Amino acid sequence: MARILLAEDDSSMRHFLGMALGRAGHEVIPCRNGLEALGVLEDDRGIELLLTDIVMPGMDGIELSQKAMALREDIKVMFITGFAAVAIGNRNAKNTGARVLSKPFHLKDLVSQVGDLLAA
Fold first, then answer.
1. Among 32, 113, 31, 109, which residue's Cα sits nearest to residue 78?
2. Cα first-last separation, the chain
3. What 8-state DSSP symbol labels residue 47?
4. What is the sign, positive or negative, of the torsion defined by CA atoms of 77, 80, 85, 87?
5. What is the pLDDT of residues 36-88, one digit of tens each?
6. Closest CA to 74 of 36, 33, 32, 117
7. Selection from 71, 20, 23 nearest residue 47 by Cα
8. Least confident window among 22-26, 85-89, 93-97, 103-107
9. Nearest to 8 by CA among 82, 72, 66, 71
10. SS3 of residue 110 by DSSP
11. 26 in helix, strand or coil?
C-alpha cells in the first residue's frame, strides 16, 4: 500500500484518520502542522500522498501542498477541510489535480477516496 503523510492540527482527527488508513494497509506518517510535514517531505522522498487539512497554524495546507509539489512533482494531494475553506480547496484542486474531502465525512469515504486517488 501507500506511504501517506498526514498533516492535521486536531489531535483526535489525526489519530482517527491515521488509524483508519493504517487499518486499510497504508503507512501513515502523522504531523501536527504544515511546518512539521514540510520537514518530513524534505527528508523522505518515499511519500506518495499528502493528506492535509487546509486550515492549520503556521503553514496552511495549500501552502504545504505547493511546497510539496515543488519538491516532488509526482506526489498526490488530498485536502480535508471544514465547509468554510472548501472554496479555497476547490480552486487549488482544479489547478493541481488534488481532491477535497469536506468535514464531516465517514472514515470509509476517506479510505475509498484515498484508494481512488492513489490508483489514478
1. 113
2. 14
3. -
4. positive
5. 999 999 998 899 999 999 889 889 998 999 999 999 989 999 999 875 555 45
6. 117
7. 71
8. 85-89
9. 82
10. helix
11. coil
CB 98, CB 7: distance < 8 Å: no
- Cell numbers placing 79: 485536502
Who contacts 46 (Cβ-Cβ below 8 Å, separation ≥6)?
A: 3
**Element of type H or E holding 31:** strand 27-31
User: What structural domains and CATH numbers belong to the chain?
Assistant: 9-119 (3.40.50.2300)
Residue 83: burial class (beta carbons within 10 Å; 0-12, 13-18, 19+): exposed
User: Which of 4, 56, 57 lies closest to 26, judged by CA?
Assistant: 4
pTM for this model (two decimals): 0.89
Q: By the 8 A CB rule, do 1 and 26 touch?
A: yes
Is residue 69 classed as helix, strand or coil in its secondary structure? helix
